[in-house]
Specification:
Blueprint lengths: L16 H17 L14 E2 L10 E6 L5 E3 L2 E2 L5 H11 L12 E6 L5 H13 L5 E3 L2 E2 L2
Parallel strand pairs: 1-7, 2-5, 5-6
Antiparallel strand pairs: 2-3, 3-4
Helix pairs in contact: 2-3
Length: 143
């Protein structure tokens, strides 16, 4: 005897509510455990060179020019982009207790490859006005 003849077949369905609850818990867990780190360093793409790297001198002033034209002297931002503020920043880092006849510090320009030429020229001119005749450029070696 077939007792199920009068009954209709029940359609199968998947209950999605528990699945959604589990996925939301996983998403919340991932959001809480993920660390968002922000690097505060400068990204500068130096021009390339085939010359061997020079020895680092202890008596040098590091001037960095970013792609946006911002100037940093020994990793300290210069207040403005004009020539006088760069000259003032360079004069602040010249050692005051320098003996007579001592070698003046060398200005090493780390200019981004996409930096404006005018910014590089301003730094060179500011070094000359600050009394620093020795200027050099930093470059990364080709690999």
């Amino acid at each position: 005897m077939d007792f199920r003849r009068g009954r209709g077949k029940e359609e199968l369905e998947i209950n999605l509510i528990p699945l959604i609850d589990v996925l939301l818990v996983i998403i919340i867990f991932l959001m809480l455990t993920t660390t968002y780190s922000k690097f505060s360093g400068l990204e500068i793409n130096l021009p390339t060179s085939d010359a061997p790297p020079a020895k680092e001198q202890p008596n040098e002033i590091d001037v960095t020019i970013t792609a946006q034209g911002e100037v940093l002297v020994n990793r300290t931002a210069v207040g403005g982009h004009d020539l006088e503020s760069i000259v003032a920043a360079l004069r602040r880092v010249i050692p005051a207790d320098q003996p007579e006849g001592a070698k003046l510090p060398m200005v090493v320009i780390n200019g981004d490859a996409k930096a404006n030429f005018q910014s590089v020229f301003d730094v060179m001119q500011a070094a000359q006005k600050a009394g620093l005749p020795n200027v050099s450029f930093a470059a990364q070696t080709q690999k």
